[in-house]
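FYI - complex with LB5GJZVW, inputs then prediction.
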Amino acid sequence: MLLGVIADDFTGATDIAGFLQGNGLRTLQLNGVPAADLGVDADAVVISLKSRSCPPEEAVADSLAALDWLRARDCAQFFFKYCSTFDSTAKGNIGPVTDALLDALDEDFTVICPVLPVNGRTIYNGYLFVNDVPLNESGMRNHPVTPMTDANIMRVMEAQSRGRAGNVPSRIMDQGVEAVRDALNALRAQGMRYAVLDALNDRHLEVMGAAVQGMKLVTGGSGLADGMARHWTTGRIDEAGPVRGPTVVISGSCSQMTNAQVAAYRAEAPAIAVDVDRAITGDAVAHADELAQWVLSHQGGLAPLVYATMPPDALKAVQARHGAARASEAIEHLFALLARRLEAGGIVRFIVAGGETSGSVTQALGIPGFAIGPQIAPGVPWVRAVGKPLALALKSGNFGGERFFFDAQSVTEGSK
Ligand SMILES: Nc1ncnc2c1ncn2[C@@H]1O[C@H](COP(=O)(O)OP(=O)(O)O)[C@@H](O)[C@H]1O
Ligand SMILES: O=C(O)[C@@H](O)C(=O)COP(=O)(O)O
């Protein structure tokens, strides 16, 4: 196998899997670390974990279990995939997991590269930008679970890890592969453990993709994987075909773009808001039943939307009433209950917004893995469940255009 990927959430996993498959790698996504005896015939395997915001020890243990599984399958190289907005806290989990993977592989140096220029995630002199705005001034400053308040990735990484971080600036990326390799060697010789790679455009991705060939562990966003995969493959391969039938849209993301997508969709399609206070204070089962009935009675036209999505002020009020962790957990639990009821009621396509939310829904549906289908937007492919006739679109909070929920349905419209 060319590449084994350990992804810290489910939307992140489908994001990178979509880019690998799009570059011609036969890619399989596995939801959690699978049973040891699963046979795999693929160029790349992506293991989705739900390790972005759990306690660091749990994230490390899950990531090492995924690494062991991949190592037993002779992966040539390993990729730790985290969010292109570097979602983490001062406790982790990007730093502790990176350190644990380096130790397990007996390595002392890696790259840190949360970029995806096609979606506006770029790094300049080690500072991360989201659509040309520094990370700490972007919508990520209001994230419910991992608010990001510093754009300097060297500083953020050093605060949660064991080593020092240097930068390979964009002017070196402009000079090409040899210059980047020399810069990486120089940083390592200076005692740096991490090299934050600048990337402003696709050309930089290709250069860094070549420069990291042979590095046992790399870490970053799907832009780095796109750059790496461009050097391995020659053409496109078949994507998983469409699934037809009853559809639901579930939105548990409170990101800026998801708020805009929910507003655009609600204006034209049937939509119902989760009663968040009720979900949190104990009546989740009855509420999930009602929401499921509502979804099943609104089939026929545009798929019905169930959303907990809120703008930052309303979200802060909910978190002040109930606590942020309790609120997130309860809402994820509600969506898990809802997903199971909807599957039982005949829903076969789930369009889900939000990484944690997607993890919760996918786990509730007991889906062991995915084959990768056509891209709806950069970083968001349709995926088809292994072993069940279900299709899902797992959308990162900030990905897609304002009409994403419409777009997801029209990608497969011809086959409805
Ligand atoms: N109205 C709300 N009040 C409090 N928490 C919420 C609300 N809506 C969603 N959440 C929680 O916020 C988190 C959003 O994270 P996630 O699903 O990963 O979205 P994103 O991809 O935008 O990061 C989830 O844990 C979700 O349960
Ligand atoms: O790299 C990215 O931006 C995405 O792949 C990602 O990790 C998505 O996470 P969420 O925004 O939490 O959905």
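The two ends are 35 Å apart (CA to CA). Residues 247-415 form a domain with the Molybdenum Cofactor Biosythetic Enzyme; Chain A fold (CATH 3.40.980.20).
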